[in-house]
Design a protein that fits this description.
alpha+beta; Deoxyribonuclease I, Chain A; six-stranded mixed β-sheet
Length: 383
């Protein structure tokens, strides 16, 4: 949801009630800077959330832009990593147990400023696409939520490839793979998408290209309460538009998203934007679940090698350390548990890089022709 300034909405009980009903919230145009970190941590903590924020600037007199993902504390142990590579997106990877799936899901909070903005530009979609091409995004469900400022009408955001060409080249399996998303949605009656917005802009064309390239599908006008509706998400006087989207990979859309709707506009929530809500099929989450860490072979001692110190530093999993910090802030673990987890992470990297050795078999044994030294022997030696 585009809140157009989080601080101005945070004092309203209606706004707190709105976000408190969800497990994960994506907020755009938060208009915060790094000096507000203590404030947002306190605000979210009182509501039972942990905030992952991506501010446009570290410090600013006139704050603008900004994205935040709020996650309930109970879900923090299932956050695998977070990324904020630029100021238009923030990424959170959730464990598959959260959605009862065979794959983890990467949630992306996105805010792309308007074309007319100083911070806007069609190139920002290239920046977003570069993230989707990274290896760490492979083998995971993808779900993007936010304000794209893109008008895309009801234009199809998919391409269907004629498989005859593949058949002629004896590449039948490749043809099926290319059309996998289209065939899946078509089989569930979800291929057609409608939108009340009849406008199209450059952002809209680029958004459709991005979806086609990565087998992503716009959820608006396709799922749940908004199916065959495509309701307006932006209300500017008599001008109504669809610019806030939920976009998902085909398998996530079909098997995990159970509902999607555009909620009523209210100035207590935003200046001109309506909240959008996507409902996922949830897995089993237990408050008492403790994240299981990889087993460390404690019988082997670390063989320290100063020549490998740079390799050791590079091997440290910074995302894992950040995850421990977030859990500590959220109160999910206490300082002793945090210290133990940090030590385990460091030891694990050291074992992988430095290697280990064992003292097993090196214990001194008394030769058969010598009697062990007893207390009586020691007394005689002193004499």
């Amino acid at each position: 949801m585009n809140v157009c300034g989080l601080k101005s909405k945070a004092n309203f009980a209606e706004f707190k009630n709105l976000i408190s009903g969800s497990d994960l919230i994506v907020l755009t145009e938060t208009k915060l800077d790094d000096m507000d970190e203590m404030w947002i941590n306190q605000f979210c903590g009182e509501l039972g959330y942990v905030a992952y924020i991506n501010n446009r600037k570290k410090m600013a007199v006139m704050r603008s832009g900004g994205i935040a993902i709020l996650i309930k504390k109970i879900m923090i142990p299932h956050v695998r990593w977070t990324r904020k590579p630029n100021d238009i997106a923030i990424w959170v990877k959730l464990d598959k147990i959260v959605i009862n799936s065979d794959k983890d899901v990467i949630i992306g909070g996105v805010y792309i400023p308007p074309e007319t903005s100083t911070y806007g530009g069609i190139h920002l979609f290239d920046v977003l696409e570069e993230q989707l091409l990274l290896p760490e995004f492979n083998d995971s469900h993808i779900c993007l939520c936010g304000d794209f400022n893109a008008h895309a009408r009801s234009a199809p955001n998919y391409s269907y490839i004629d498989t005859q060409l593949f058949d002629d080249l004896n590449l039948y399996d490749l043809g099926i793979e290319c059309n996998e998303g289209v065939n899946l949605l078509n089989g569930h009656g979800l291929l057609k998408r409608l939108s009340k917005d009849t406008h199209m802009n450059n952002y809209g064309y680029r958004l459709l290209d991005l979806c086609r390239s990565h087998s992503l599908f716009i959820v608006n006008g396709r799922v749940g309460h908004d199916r065959y509706v495509g309701d307006y998400t932006c209300i500017k006087g008599v001008n109504h538009h669809v610019v806030d989207y939920c976009i998902a990979s085909h398998d996530f859309l079909v098997h995990t998203l159970s509902d999607f709707k555009v909620m009523d506009f209210d100035k207590l929530y935003s200046d001109v934007h309506c909240p959008i809500k996507a409902t996922m099929c949830k897995g089993i989450i237990n408050e008492n679940i403790v994240e299981q860490r990889p087993f460390l072979n404690q019988t082997g001692k670390i063989k320290w090698d100063a020549a490998k110190i740079n390799d050791f530093i590079e091997s440290l999993d910074n995302s894992d350390l950040a995850n421990i910090e977030n859990k500590l802030i959220a109160g999910v673990i206490d300082p002793n548990e945090a210290n133990e987890s940090i030590c385990d992470t460091i030891k694990e990297s050291a074992r992988n890089v430095m290697g280990t050795y064992s003292n097993q078999g090196r214990n001194r044994r008394v030769p058969n022709n010598k009697r062990p030294i007893t207390g009586e022997c020691r007394e005689r030696r002193r004499d």
